[in-house]
Design a protein that fits this description.
CATH class: Alpha Beta
CATH architecture: 2-Layer Sandwich
Strand order of the largest sheet: 1-5-4-3-2
Radius of gyration: 15 Å
CATH topology: TATA-Binding Protein
Structural class: alpha+beta
Strand content: 25-35%
Oligomer: single chain
Helix content: 40-55%
Number of strands: 5
Distance between the termini: 25 Å
Order of helices and strands: EHEHEHEEHH
Length: about 130
């Protein structure tokens, strides 16, 4: 199962995260949530991982369309975008596949919204 779209970049983790945030903003997304997976697992389980962050990205016009169609769609929002350090030093930037995610509700009228979100997320990831 393909969960999302990703690419590896030759940047530091911090540079990649900054670029992801900037490129998302250029595409009309805001980052509503942030989970520092590395810090959380270190604190809770005393496990050391490579840097890994999950950013909850929201595109307000698309969220409004989806919520107006299916109010419960909030369970699938926001769209997750991840930034993670690879073992070889590169950084993986990725975004959820919104079409796959919204496809679980079986509402064909959401397909254009999901396609638009996917297009914008891909543009953001490709621009990093």
């Amino acid at each position: 199962m393909k969960l999302g779209y990703f690419r590896d970049v030759q940047l530091s983790f911090q540079e990649a995260e900054e670029k992801v945030r900037a490129r998302l903003q250029e595409q009309g997304f805001g980052v509503l949530t942030e989970i520092d997976v590395k810090a959380t697992l270190k604190k809770k389980l005393d496990v050391d991982l490579q840097p890994y962050k999950i950013l909850g990205a929201c595109h307000p016009p698309s969220a409004l369309k989806a919520l107006s169609t299916v109010p419960e769609i909030g369970l699938l929002l926001p769209c997750n975008v991840t930034v993670s350090q690879n073992e070889d030093g590169t950084v993986r930037v990725s975004a959820v596949d919104a079409e796959m995610m919204l496809g679980v509700v079986d509402r064909p009228e959401l397909a254009p919204v999901a396609a638009e979100v996917n297009s914008s997320l891909r543009k953001a990831i490709d621009a990093v």
